[in-house]
Amino acid sequence: DDPDNTWTECDDTEVFVTTLTLDESPGEIRAMKVLGATLMVYKADAVIAVTFTGGPTRFQRRKMAFPMGILAPLSLQSIGELGHIFLATDRNLYVNTGTAITPLPPNAQKSLQITMSAAIAPFARSMVDVSKDTYILSYQHSGTTYFDGLIEYNYRTGEFTRKLYPVEFYSMLVYKSATWADYIRLASSSNLTYQLETGTNDNGTALSRYFDIDWTTLGVPGTKYLTGAEFVFEKARDCRVKISVAVDKSAKFNYGKWFDLRGNDPRETTVRVAYDIPSPIYGTWFKIRIEMFHDSSTNVVKLLEFQPEVIQEQAASIDTPRVAGTVRV
User: Fold this and answer.
1) Using 50, 70 and 90 to split pLDDT, how confident is the model at 119?
2) How far apart are CA 221 and CA 108, in angstroms?
3) Residue 189 and residue 184: Cα distance in Å, rounded?
4) Which end of the chain is more exposed for a tag (fewer CB within 10 A), N or C?
5) Phi, psi at residue 138, to the nearest 5°?
6) Dihedral, 102, 108, 114, 115 alpha carbons, nearest 10
7) How far is Cα of residue 156 from the mean position of the Cα atoms in its chain?
8) pLDDT per position as a tens digit, 183-221
């Protein structure tokens, strides 16, 4: 055999080649994705589960008890151990757990029936934001040519939201620039990249929403070191803040850090944020900026408390070197 140039000599008589004919239905194969130890094959009119069994049979095929197939191949996404989500031929979203296929709640997806045309529905795109346990599907709204709306479904809690954007986009993805960075949701329009969660318009101009704790000595006169600060926010889903600091009337803000305000303890109504500066900043005047980002229109950022942490320079005698004492203002 010469696999670099031709596969004509490879056939299913070889030990390592198996031909599977999924003739449980006449429709074509549109998408495939592994679910546990099973390959789920999504056809135009059926969903087939293929499992490796070994022995002479090698593979076992099973048609799922589901009367439809997948409509939009790019709507198919894995949602961890819970299975797959996909857009079926009736323009509804379904969850495939491997043993059963069930629809999402009707109120989570009724916009797909009302506004998305049959012509554009097969081209719907999707993505999963694993940091928020959210499946996101693009859809067409108000007769647009392409997609200008998103349906977001939290597959852990069952919550959902719908969003509209002032730009039509063709495709989208969740992007992470580094292992330590936050996930960013991106979409492409005709000639631009659109950042969905930060309020960036179709000309690429950032729309800033921020609050400044204006120039202050932080309650400690004279020069000092700022080592960080502690903030208390009201807990809110789909809300994030970026905190940074400027020193001594400078227009440049440094040490920007992102924080999510959804919280971890369901019993708490607030989120306590520890903003740590890796290298203490020396100065007299400080300005702290809080940039606010809302991923939905139902929640807003609310700052309840602010407490800086500084190291104050203390006066000392001529024979004694200066010492630093920590002051919590």
Assistant:
1) confident
2) 55
3) 16
4) N
5) -80, 145
6) -110
7) 14
8) 888 888 766 677 777 655 445 444 446 788 889 999 888
Closest of 129, 142, 278, 126 to residue 197, by C-alpha: 129
| Type of residue found at 126 | S
CA angle 29, 30, 35 (to 5 degrees): 90
Place of tokens 């063709």: 170
DSSP lists the bridge partners of residue 163 as: 150
Q: What pLDDT, on a 0 to 100 scale, did the predictor assign at position 291?
A: 86
Nearest to 71 by CA among 87, 56, 85: 87
Distance CA 140, CA 214 (A): 43
Which residues, at least 6 apart from 244, have a Cβ–Cβ distance to it below 8 Å? 253, 254, 255, 256, 257, 288, 289, 291
CA neighbor of 25 nearest in space, from 57, 72, 65: 65
As a residue count, the chain comes to 329
Written as six digits, the tokens of 99 are 């043993």
Question: H/E/C letters for each residue in 133-198?
Answer: CEEEEEECCCCCCCEEEEEEEECCCCCEEEEEEEEEECEEEEECCCCCCCCEEEEECCCCEEEHHH
- Relative to beta strand 224-234, strand 303-313 is antiparallel
Q: The tokens of 204 are what?
A: 């690429």
